[in-house]
Design goal:
The chain is α+β, with helices and mostly antiparallel strands. The strands form eight sheets. Strands 13, 14, 17, 18, 19, 20, 21, 22 and 23 form a nine-stranded mixed β-sheet that branches. Strands 28-34-33-32-31-29-30 form a seven-stranded mixed β-sheet, sandwiched between helices. Strands 1, 2, 3, 5, 6 and 7 form a six-stranded antiparallel β-sheet that branches.
Length: 961
């Protein structure tokens, strides 16, 4: 609830007294009461005899009934249907005499009693996480509240009160002595200084109106919607409403949004975006919003320090627990950076960075041989070279896992960094005066057309404050690492203390702290791939690619590298890849990279020429397959492999009809799309080809024969026999049975024991061929077997391979028997331009070497076991998890809204995937209903990675979305 001037709690009425007043004055019969929080007024939730619930507020002595009615009038304005969108406001309940603020004399004091409707929901303070969407809705609500209260007139005789944003410095001055920590006092005074400067320049131009002015996290309720996310549902407590600057509404909402987060500016930006989508901010409002919001937090902290010193209310302790950490972060964020974030979030013009004066300065470290730092995803270089790290760039040494748990990671270097293997002397790039030396830094002031301050970290210097140096004069020695940044203000250079900044704040810091490269004699920073930001890449994709070519995620990351089981974006943030079975032996696997580059240097041509690599690879591949599988067709994709396999089967048998498993996906060629129920029965699908026939999906979670049925395999396979009999009776027996060795896109479905054995027997009895689609699961992923079909104890007639075969290189294969291959040779030549080229064969051989020599098959078995065990533990704690399925390192988590009805939780799966991505964990929904999280990581994925993934998944599942 909102605070008022007094800090002394009043005498509490008994439940009997409250029930009596409700009955006598309001005609309401109370059956149960629960005390609510409140600093001064007594607030009670009361359950009534008719099943409804109300809130009873018993004011402190001396409360003004007219002022209370005025606030109730504001509630009525804001509560008009649709004024706040779908957000609700409590309505006042009239007493028997028609009044909504009843004066009661009891125990010698006069109190005002009001009753208002109960609003369900949880306060934002009670939620353990706030999504950008929820924060945006808070901003939108603030804008709509301003508009809703615009017709209101100010309270007669009222001027201001303690929480008026305009009198924040006075409120702080009243309690600052209660803050005993000198560093906290300094932080507050610094922020108040920002407030004073901003208000001196802009106060006169700020629009004024009546505002709620207390949209803090205790006064806003949220409820989950049909999309599985929490949404703003209601606004409470108009006790702090008054006539003041309009921007105060947004400033308060922004202030409290910056609590409980390590990145207050990112949180603030989301709120501002929501507000600006509804109501445009004026130039003056844009200029004062950041210091106004920061100062509001200082008022909160100082006020509660003073009140807790007097009486120690728990509300105040709860407030301060989160407020002081936020103030500490804001105090090191210059107001120029804050204003840039405000303007960017509001879609307002931003002043472009001015050219840095003093270009062409003296080279600061003569004699050093500089090379750039390695990209962020590569190991740090170790040699005699000194390494140069550029301004606002992520590179080796700054890489971290992306996460919101500790806030947006600061990964971009502020200034330049030089790392050397030996000490080196440093000279001044320009004439300067030593501004400060009794700090962790050396700060120099450079006078010119514009004064610039340079900050030097890691420098041993004997210079003292006030000393003058000429360009080229020695200023100290760097022992190993030197960092230099330049700033446009002395205060920013002195107090920010930042060495790294978060990506979302980088554009602001680029203005406050420009690129020092030319100033330091390093030359201009070269352009490159970093110019292709995520927004620019996505916009280009949307223009240059068809809508059907969708990317993962609503807010995709911009990937620039990978290593092992990790991928890295343009900002040096890492993502543990739990879904990419294409990079089978790990991203940028050194053995594969070397094989590819070495072969490219020697030869690359097509497979009708003779070269050793194709023979070696064919021998290596077929040696891993059971007899009589021994003839290879090398192609370029899994879709192409399946297309060729079906063509072979149809040619050899002279038939056209093909059996497939319901829900299966086999590729995207015209033929294979017509054999993929997952596609032709999905959005935009046009149904199966006339020659396509589905058999029942052997799904032990959703199907009629479950995990507890030992004969499930035979029972599901019986449908294969029924379809074979039906087609044979029609005179169109099947040419083939095309089945994945485990169903991937259908939702990680593993066949019950004996299923393929009986299914193959049924198919072969009709003279048809059995095709095993190993595109998803082959090459040791199952752990106990090298090929998925081996787990079912069968040997197919044709095997298709793709995805993992080339570790991301476009290659695939079809392997069959000599008898079938010869029967396919009808005189028509089969030729594939790129299939089996020398580079592809070198890569394929390197992948096999890595699997064999790295023991990756056994590794898959062990990692898969750990992964499955941990996921099973999560399923025991989270009702959203309906089923966990796994074989080695191929896993699926099926999400359901109800474990009894098994209603698919598709929306939740998308939200969960997005949240996991924001925590640096890559997973994505699949399955016919889009509710199964597919987990099929590179085999470089370790048991420790599985532990980390499940820890993060547990945390995300525990959140309030």
């Amino acid at each position: 609830m909102s605070t008022v001037e007094s800090s002394s709690p009043v005498q509490q009425w008994s439940q009997a007294s409250i029930a009596e007043v409700l009955a006598q004055e309001f005609g309401l019969r109370a059956v149960a009461q629960s005390p609510l929080g409140g600093e001064v007024d007594q607030n009670v939730a009361v359950d009534l005899s008719d099943g409804s619930r109300v809130v009873v507020k018993i004011s402190s002595p001396g409360a003004d009934a007219d002022e209370i009615r005025w606030r109730q009038g504001l509630q009525a304005l804001a509560g008009r249907p649709g004024v706040l969108g779908s957000v609700h406001v409590a309505t006042a309940v009239a007493a028997c005499n028609g009044d909504t603020a009843v004066a009661i004399d009891r125990d010698g004091t006069r109190r005002i009693v009001t009753v208002q409707s109960w609003l369900a929901g949880r306060t934002l303070s009670d939620l353990n996480s706030h999504s950008p969407q929820l924060r945006g809705e808070l901003g939108l609500t603030a804008a709509r509240m301003v508009q809703a209260l615009a017709p209101a007139t100010r309270l007669p005789g009222a001027t201001t009160h303690h929480w008026d944003v305009l009198r924040s410095p006075e409120a702080i001055a009243d309690g600052i002595d209660a803050v005993e920590d000198p560093s906290r006092q300094a932080q507050v005074r610094r922020i108040v200084g920002w407030f004073d400067r901003a208000m001196d320049s802009h106060r006169a131009g700020l629009p004024k109106s009546v505002v709620h002015q207390d949209l803090n996290d205790f006064n806003v309720l949220a409820r989950p919607g049909t999309d599985g996310r929490h949404h703003v549902h209601a606004v409470l407590d108009f006790a702090d409403a008054l006539y003041t600057v309009r921007i105060g509404e947004l400033a308060v909402a922004v202030a409290y949004s910056m609590l409980r987060t390590a990145n207050p500016l990112s949180a603030a930006a989301a709120v501002i975006r929501g507000y600006a989508a509804e109501l445009e901010l004026t130039e003056d409002e844009l200029s004062v919003l950041y210091p106004l919001a920061a100062t509001r937090l200082c008022v909160n902290a100082v006020t509660w320090m003073k009140r807790c010193a007097d009486s120690g209310p728990s509300y105040g302790h709860e407030r301060m627990k989160h407020t002081w950490p936020a103030i500490a972060l804001l105090a090191t964020t210059p107001p120029e950076v804050g204003e840039f974030v405000v303007r960017s979030a509001a879609g307002a013009p931003v002043e472009p960075g001015r050219p840095v004066p003093g270009a062409g300065g003296r080279w600061l470290a003569p004699g050093l041989d500089l090379v750039p730092f390695a990209p962020a995803h590569e190991p740090v270089g170790r040699d005699h070279h000194a390494r140069l790290g550029r301004h606002l760039q992520a590179d080796a040494g700054t890489v971290v896992r992306r996460t919101t748990a500790s806030g947006e990671a600061a990964t971009l270097r502020l200034g330049v960094e030089i790392a050397a293997s030996r000490p080196f002397q440093v000279v001044a790039p320009h004439a300067a005066v030593v501004e400060e030396r009794d700090t962790p830094y050396l700060i120099l002031r450079h006078e010119g057309a514009e004064t610039i301050w340079s900050r030097w970290t890691g420098l041993d210097s004997s210079l003292s404050a006030g000393a003058s140096v000429a360009a080229g004069d020695p200023i100290g020695d760097a022992q190993a690492t030197l960092r230099v940044a330049i700033f446009r203000s002395h205060e920013t250079a002195r107090v920010s203390g930042r060495q790294l900044v978060a990506p979302s704040e980088a554009p602001a810091w680029a203005i406050v702290s420009p690129d020092p490269s030319e100033f330091l004699g390093l030359g201009a920073r070269p352009g490159g791939a970093t110019d292709w930001t995520a927004d620019k890449v996505l916009a280009t994709r949307n223009v240059r690619f068809a809508r059907s070519q969708r990317s993962y995620y609503d807010r995709p990351m911009n990937l620039v590298g990978g290593r092992g089981a990790w991928l890295y974006d343009e900002f040096g943030r890492g993502y543990l890849d739990a879904m990419n079975n294409v990079s089978h032996v790990g991203h940028s696997n050194p053995r594969v990279v070397e094989a590819a580059t070495a072969q490219l240097r020697r030869l690359n041509t097509n497979s009708r020429f003779l070269y050793p690599g194709i023979a070696e690879y064919a021998e290596r591949l077929t040696a891993l397959l059971p007899d009589p599988l021994g003839v290879v067709f090398l192609v370029c994709s899994g879709s192409e492999a399946n297309d060729l396999a079906v063509r072979i089967a149809r040619t050899v048998t002279g038939r056209s009809d093909v059996l497939v498993v319901d829900g299966a996906y086999h590729g995207n060629t015209s033929v294979i799309t017509g054999l993929s129920p997952n596609r032709y029965k999905g959005p935009g699908g046009t149904g199966p080809d006339p020659t396509t026939h589905e058999v029942q999906q052997p799904n032990r979670y959703r199907g009629p024969f479950g995990y507890d049925d030992p004969d499930a395999g035979s029972k599901y396979a019986a449908d294969v026999q029924r379809q074979v009999d039906r087609l044979t009776a029609l005179g169109t027996p099947p040419a083939a049975f095309l089945a994945e060795s485990a169903m991937g896109t259908a939702g990680s479905i593993f066949y019950p024991d004996g299923y393929l054995e009986r299914a193959h027997a049924s198919v072969r009895s009709a003279g048809a061929l059995c095709i095993a689609d190993e595109v998803q699961v082959g090459f040791g992923r199952f752990g106990d077997v090298f090929w998925g079909f081996q787990s079912q104890g069968v040997v197919p007639d044709i095997v298709t391979m793709g995805k993992p075969i080339g570790n991301g290189h476009p290659m695939a294969a079809v392997v069959t028997t000599r008898e079938i291959a010869d029967a396919f040779d009808t005189g028509m030549r089969y030729f594939n331009t790129f299939g089996g080229n020398p580079v592809s064969c070198a890569i394929g051989t390197a992948v096999l070497d890595e699997i064999s020599e790295g023991g990756l098959q056994a590794h898959a078995a062990e990692t898969g076991r750990v992964f499955k065990d941990r996921l099973d533990e999560l399923a025991g704690r989270h009702e959203l998890i309906g089923d966990v399925r796994a074989h080695g390192m191929y896993l699926g988590i099926e999400l359901v809204r109800d474990r009894v009805t098994k209603e698919p939780a598709a929306r939740e799966a998308l939200v969960l995937s997005e949240l996991m991505k924001d925590e640096g964990m890559l997973v994505y929904p699949t399955g016919s209903a889009g509710n199964v999280l597919k987990i099929k990581p590179p085999l470089a994925f370790t048991p420790a990675d599985a532990e980390l993934f499940t820890e993060v998944l547990d945390e995300v599942l525990t959140r309030d979305w």
